[in-house]
Design goal:
By secondary structure, the protein is an alpha+beta fold. 12% of the residues lie in helices and 30% in strands. It has helices spanning 31-42, 150-154, 211-222, 286-289, 345-351, 365-376, and strands at residues 2-5, 8-11, 13-15, 18-20, 46-52, 67-72, 115-123, 130-136, 144-149, 176-183, 189-193, 198-200, 228-230, 240-246, 253-259, 266-271, 277-281, 308-314, 320-325, 355-357, 395-401, 404-411, 418-421. Strand 10 (176-183) and strand 11 form a beta hairpin. Helix 5 packs across helix 6. The radius of gyration is 34 Å and the shape is elongated.
Length: 422
């Protein structure tokens, strides 16, 4: 499809079911946008016929036209439109066997591709709501002049950037099985997907990645969209190189990320094998530029309240509270928590043991039960790369379990920064 507007021209080519803005296939077009544009031609409604074989098409602004849209089909397909009628129905047709010409040797000749042309000229009235147009089954102007509404004209008032594919990653998140990231100012890493978890390749880190965090990273990549385009490719070295391996794709997707000149928060992104760069905001790349530690598993499975034998809470003023299960409770446990309290599985397990506070006859068992339930599902919000020393006001929570070393959780109640010592 070719769209000619004055001196400007957009030429689109369909190859292997995909639309491109160049013959080499290095500038992707939005399949949906282009297909909708093609279909919109079949939806044009003819307002009225104006002239048949006029002496001068220039009187209607059709020689030359303001807009000329040319559709060229491949030899293997038939567009199925011999004319644009007032009912605006285009019925795809197949070429009949009788229509195939043969040579003297009974060899079929190659079908010539057909060309269809829509021309839009001057406004038909002072309001500019109607425009003179013609439709032909070749590249020569038709002699039948009719009018169409301006709404149809507006569909072709597009720039090449309006028709570009804004996506950067073509694979869907569920298809991505391996991610390799090279960074100039951070360690490289490779993530590999199994059925229900992600893992680092070989020994790139001394911790496991967090499934939810990695899933968010993959989603972030898959949802990257360019907000601007440039055929002037960046000359500086890429700060990031991302390689994606996906199920159903024989070749990996390789993407280069360059910091935009004179812009602290923007990046130029280019796919391998393409001749166009796309502009993205740094906020879209947050997970990619974070330290490797940010991918660490944020669950703390080592905290198992149902196995605790002692829980000691030490305030910074030296006052301590020591909790332990009731000694005589050895068989069927009793739930001391009120029925109105939350009953999720983690809290129920923690509350099936009756606890006592050393040196006291009673205490707020409901609040303590909530604490144990929260410990069971404790999840790190963010890993802090630097070592943090406890400060005045911090609370020490020491957790002891049978046949296991004690664990101490030091918490700043104001910032929620915590240190877990095993």
């Amino acid at each position: 499809m070719k769209i000619q507007r004055g001196e400007g021209q957009i030429e689109l080519t369909k190859t292997d079911g995909r639309w491109f803005l160049d013959l080499q296939g290095t500038q992707r077009a939005s399949h949906e946008s282009v297909e909708n544009l093609v279909k919109s031609i079949g939806a044009i409604y003819i307002d009225q016929f104006v002239a048949d074989a006029p002496d001068d098409l220039g009187l209607y602004g059709l020689d030359p036209p303001n807009i000329e849209v040319t559709l060229r089909e491949s030899a293997a397909t038939i567009l199925g439109t011999d004319e644009l009628d007032t009912n605006q129905q285009q019925t795809p047709t197949k070429k009949s066997p009788e229509a195939t010409e043969t040579t003297a040797d009974s060899q079929p000749q190659k079908a010539e591709p057909k060309i269809y042309t829509l021309r839009i000229g001057s406004p038909a009235d002072l309001t500019g709501d109607k425009y003179f147009s013609t439709w032909s089954d070749d590249d020569e102007p038709s002699q039948a002049v009719f009018t169409i509404g301006k709404v149809h004209l507006d569909k072709f008032e597009k720039s090449a950037d309006d028709l570009r594919d804004v996506r950067i990653v073509l694979s869907k998140p569920r298809e991505i099985r391996e991610l390799h990231v090279q960074r100039t100012d951070q360690p490289d890493f490779t993530l590999q997907r199994a059925t229900d978890h992600w893992s680092f390749a070989e020994t790139q880190a001394n911790f496991d990645p967090d499934f939810s965090v990695v899933t968010d990273l993959i989603e972030e990549l898959a949802n990257l969209e360019g907000t601007g385009f440039s055929t002037d490719l960046p000359e500086n070295q890429p700060k990031l190189i991302v390689t994606l391996y996906a199920t159903g794709r024989t070749e990996p997707e390789r993407i280069f990320f360059h910091k935009a000149d004179n812009a602290q928060s923007q990046w130029w992104v280019k796919r391998d094998g393409e001749s166009i760069a796309q502009l993205v905001d740094q906020s879209q790349l947050a997970s990619l530029v974070q330290p490797l530690l940010s991918l660490r598993n944020r669950n703390l499975p080592q905290l198992e309240p149902e196995h605790f034998t002692h829980v000691t809470l030490l305030r910074d003023d030296g006052v301590s509270f020591i909790f332990h299960p009731k000694a005589e409770l050895t068989t069927q446990p009793t739930i001391t928590q009120a029925a109105s309290q939350p009953t999720d599985a983690a809290r129920r397990r923690a509350q099936t043991v009756e606890w006592i506070l050393k040196g006291e006859d009673s205490f707020e068992s409901g609040a303590f039960g909530e604490l144990l339930g929260d410990l069971k599902r404790l999840r790190v919000e963010e890993w802090v790369p630097q070592i943090v020393d406890p400060q005045p006001g911090w609370i020490d929570l020491t957790l002891e379990a049978a046949a296991a070393p004690p664990q101490t959780l030091q918490v700043d109640p104001n910032t929620r920064t915590a240190i877990l010592t095993e």
